[in-house]
Specification:
Elements: E1 3-8, E2 11-16, H1 32-35, H2 39-47, H3 49-72, E3 80-85, E4 92-93, H4 95-104, H5 112-118, E5 122-123, H6 127-136, E6 140-148, H7 152-161, E7 172-175, H8 183-190, E8 193-200, H9 214-223, E9 232-234, H10 242-247, H11 256-265
Parallel strand pairs: 3-6, 3-8, 6-7, 8-9
Antiparallel strand pairs: 1-2, 4-5
C-alpha cells in the first residue's frame, strides 16, 4: 500500500489505498478551471454557520457520550479509557491551504508537506473545549492521522501551539511507511486502552471502511448506523477525501476528461 497525493479536480486529496497498490506516477495538476470547482465547498466550509454548528454539535455529542460512559462505567475498567481523533478537518482547519489552489488556480510547488511545516492551522469549532474536558476527566487522547511520520515534529508543534492537550510523541500517531490505513495504530492503542469514542471527517477514521467503493462505503454506513453519534462522531468535509477518490475507483490513470465525466455521472439529477 502506498500513500498517494492525487491532484483531483475538487482538491488535493490524500488517499490511503488499503488494498490497492498503484505503480503509476501521480496525476499531473488539473486544468486551472478544475481547481475552481472546489470554490463553493471551501466557501461553505469557511463561511457557513451550518458548518460551524455541525462541529459544535459533534463535540457536544462527544461530551454527552463521554459523560454517560464514564458515569455508568460502560467500559473495560481493566484498561485505561481513551478517545481517538483524526487531526485534519477534525481538530485542525486546513481550508486556507485548500483555498490557495482555488485562488491561485495552480497546485505547484506548494504541497501538504509545505503547509504542515508551517504549523499554522487553526482549531475547528468546539475542538479545544472538548479536548480540555476529556483531559480533565483523565481520559487519554490519541491523535491518529495519515500525515507521514516525517511530519511528526511539525504536527506536534501545531497542536501544541493551539493548546491541544496531550499533544506529544506518544499520543500523536502518524502513518508509517507501507502501513495500511489507520487500523494498525488503532489496534495498538486498544491493547492498553478501551477506546470510548472516535472522531473524524473521513470514514477511514473508523474501522471497516478502508478500500471500499463508493457504494460499499454507503452500504457499510447503513449497516453501522447505530454507531454514529454513539461511538463514532463524523464531521463535515466537502473539500476533499476518500469519498471522492472512491467514485473514481482510486484509479490514477484516468484522464481529467474522464474524471469530469464520472463526477457528472454520479449526480442524481432530474430532466428539465
Amino acid at each position: 500500500m502506498k500513500k498517494i497525493s492525487i491532484w483531483f479536480p475538487a482538491a488535493v486529496i490524500t488517499l490511503i489505498l488499503s488494498s490497492l497498490t498503484v505503480s503509476a506516477e501521480p496525476a499531473k495538476n488539473p486544468p486551472p478551471h478544475l481547481y475552481e470547482q472546489n470554490t463553493m465547498s471551501i466557501l461553505w466550509f469557511q463561511n457557513a454557520g451550518e458548518a460551524k454548528a455541525l462541529y459544535y454539535q459533534g463535540y457536544n455529542i462527544g461530551k454527552l457520550r463521554l459523560d454517560e460512559i464514564l458515569r455508568k462505567k460502560q467500559y473495560n475498567r481493566s484498561l485505561k479509557p481513551a478517545i481517538v481523533l483524526d487531526i485534519d478537518e477534525t481538530v485542525l482547519d486546513n481550508s486556507p491551504y485548500q483555498a490557495s489552489f482555488v485562488v491561485n488556480r495552480n497546485g505547484d510547488p506548494f504541497n501538504w508537506s509545505n503547509w504542515f511545516d508551517r504549523a499554522e492551522a487553526k482549531l475547528l469549532p468546539g475542538a479545544l473545549e472538548f479536548l480540555q474536558y476529556a483531559d480533565a476527566k483523565g481520559v487519554e487522547i490519541y491523535y491518529i492521522s495519515n500525515r507521514k511520520e516525517t511530519q511528526k515534529a511539525a504536527t506536534i508543534k501545531n497542536l501544541q501551539h493551539v493548546g491541544a492537550p496531550q499533544a506529544d510523541a506518544r499520543h500523536v500517531l502518524l502513518q508509517q511507511e507501507n502501513e495500511n490505513g489507520k487500523e494498525t495504530r488503532r489496534r495498538h492503542v486498544a491493547k492498553t486502552h478501551d477506546i470510548l469514542l472516535l472522531f473524524g471527517d473521513n470514514l477511514g477514521d473508523f474501522s471497516g471502511f478502508d478500500g471500499l467503493t463508493d457504494t460499499g462505503r454507503v452500504d457499510t454506513v447503513n449497516k453501522m448506523k447505530e454507531e454514529f453519534g454513539k461511538k463514532l462522531i463524523v464531521f463535515p468535509n466537502p473539500m476533499y477525501g476518500d469519498w471522492e477518490g472512491a467514485i473514481y475507483d482510486f484509479d490514477m490513470k484516468k484522464s481529467w476528461k474522464d474524471i469530469e465525466r464520472i463526477r457528472k455521472e454520479h449526480l442524481n439529477s432530474i430532466e428539465p
